[in-house]
């Protein structure tokens, strides 16, 4: 197994920042002559596909949450009220110097 393949297997590309770091590493490896352009192009294309998938998943999650908020407003009203009360208590503590 080549060194490039070993490095690829250890990667976890589950967040956009992981993909960005990986793309930066590919660019650095190409610049240093450690990775040929053909392999770099394949890895970049795969990374872009992974990034698109991550973003689609994030958007689906956000849409689902918004739909849930619309269909169950009472559930979120209570959470917002609790958050407002917590914010109020924190403000009061700061004002009193505690």
What would you note in describing this structure?
- The protein starts with a helix and ends with a helix.
- The chain has 98 residues and is mainly alpha-helical.
- It contains four helices and no strands.
- The model has no long low-confidence stretch (mean pLDDT 86).
In a few lines, what is going on in this structure?
It contains four helices and no strands. With 98 residues, the chain is mostly helical.
Question: What characteristics describe this protein?
Answer:
98 residues; 4 helices; 85% helix; mainly alpha
Gross morphology is: elongated
Strand-and-helix sequence, N→C?
A: HHHH
Largest sheet: none
Unreliable segments of 5+ consecutive residues: none
Mean pLDDT metric: 86
The chain-level structural class is mainly alpha
How many independent structural domains? Answer: 1
Number of strands: 0
In whole angstroms, the N-to-C terminal distance is: 60 Å
What is the percent of helical residues?
over 70%
Strand content: under 5%
- What's the alpha carbon Rg, rounded to whole Å? 23 Å
Number of helices: 4
Give the SSE map.
Elements: H1 3-9, H2 16-32, H3 37-71, H4 73-96
């Amino acid at each position: 197994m080549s060194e490039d393949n070993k490095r690829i297997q250890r990667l976890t590309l589950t967040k956009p920042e992981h993909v960005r770091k990986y793309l930066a590493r590919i660019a650095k490896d190409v610049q240093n002559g450690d990775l040929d352009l053909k392999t770099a192009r394949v890895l970049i294309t795969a990374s872009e596909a992974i990034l698109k998938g991550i973003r689609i998943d994030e958007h689906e999650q956000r849409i689902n949450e918004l739909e849930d908020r619309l269909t169950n407003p009472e559930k979120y009203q209570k959470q917002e009220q609790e958050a407002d009360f917590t914010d109020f208590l924190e403000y009061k503590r700061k004002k009193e110097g505690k």
